[in-house]
Amino acid sequence: MAANGKRSRPMECLMQHKTFEAWIFEEDELDEQDAKTLRQHLQECDQCYALKKTWPKVETLLLTAPPVMPAVGFVNRWQARLENQRKQRERRQTLTLLAISSGGAGVALALFSLALLLHFQLFPQNFLETIAQITEWALFLDVAGEIFIGLARTLPAAIPFPLWMGFFALTGAGGVLWLKSFRKLAQFQGLARWA
Ligand SMILES: [Zn+2]
To answer: Cα dihedral angle (49, 53, 59, 62), rounded to 10 degrees?
Structure first.
């Protein structure tokens, strides 16, 4: 509120202020009567006068401002997030297949152990030999498993997912073939309950 009185704000200004503000923004579209009223008001009102003086600059600024761009790095971050999600998805798929494959291997190993146990029961004289063999096999499987796990940890990042699909499909097919041969062997040995 100006103190000099000349540019103080009369009461009617307070009442109509919003209207005058709107008029300032669309001054070009005012008819002669309204334009005259506005000019009159501008001489009496500091605030509207200031707005009137400032608005063209603001308007020019708004009209000439470059289009609003996404924050710098936004696209990069977005792409990085997508890439991250894709990697996580592939990792999940690989782990799922690995778990399934490991489950299959576990079942095969259990059957294999049972076969050895059977072998031991049928041929008790080979007990120590069999234990030694089982130990050897266990060690071999342990080492092989560690190598496999090491590969599984490092390779998924380097090898495209379709190749892993092929690898697991082959492993699965191998497991099925192995089980079939095992059943044939069991039948051959006359152990009907294995068939
Ligand atoms: Zn005013």
So the answer is: -110
- DSSP result, 101-132: HHHHHHHHHHHHHHHHHHHHHH-GGGHHHHHH
Q: How far is ligand 1, taken at its centre, from the CA of residue 48, in Å?
A: 4
Question: pLDDT tens for residues 128-150?
Answer: 676 777 777 777 777 777 777 77
Separation CA 94–CA 91 (nearest Å):
5
pLDDT tens digits for range 73-101: 777 777 788 888 888 888 777 777 777 77
For residue 73, is it left (φ>0), alpha (ψ between -120 and 50) or beta? left
* Predicted TM-score of the model (pTM): 0.29
Cα of 30 vs centre of ligand 1, distance in Å, is 17
CA of 75 to the centre of ligand 1 (A): 45
